[in-house]
Amino acid sequence: MATTTRRTTDQRMRRRPTKQGTVLSEALIIDTALRLVREHGEGGLTVRRLGAALGADPSALYRYFRSTDELLLAIGDELIGRCMAGHRPSGDWLADLRDIGRRIHTTYRDHPRVAQLLAFRVTARTHEIAAVETLLGVLRGAGFGDADAVRYYHAFVDQALAFAALDTAMLGLPEGVRDARAWSETYAALPAAERPHIAATAGHLVAEMRESGYALALELLLESLASRLRGPAPR
Question: Is the pLDDT of residue 10 over 70?
Fold first, then answer.
């Protein structure tokens, strides 16, 4: 009587050359899928298109990912890994938060289609877990209690992701319909007699509103955290 041997995970995911001679791997699939999403959005990420881009049979991809959604979460986790890749702890908790916040905002802003799809998802994968551990460690190391560390982690990450989503949405607009022109053509021309505060600040509005507000918002949040660490916050 013939016996069957159950294949291990490693055997099921054994690397094999594609039609193009490229060896399939999880990292290669994620990198290629990230490129497809960056170029075409979520609609561009199909098993058939991904297989064609890799030169592989689409069915081979299911040895690595059970579904397109699982692959999307892996892409999101890869983006988080890229956010944190260059971060080096300095020993100054404010400097560390500032560096991480800028990295999150810049990385997601530079991948607008991925940001719109995945900024609100929880990947529960390696890079995200490491990032959560790092940020909670920074906040707890600064002296915040556990409950406050979680609350401030939540606000810190959501602020960076929200500004990234806002900025990528603006950058995705055609040049002719972006709102920068409205500040110089409409707001700057309003009569001081009717809109005195706008008229008084029109030059600043034109200069300020064309840029992202994240840098200032981050500093305001960090100043607030430092203030709360020094003493009880007003209720």
Answer: no
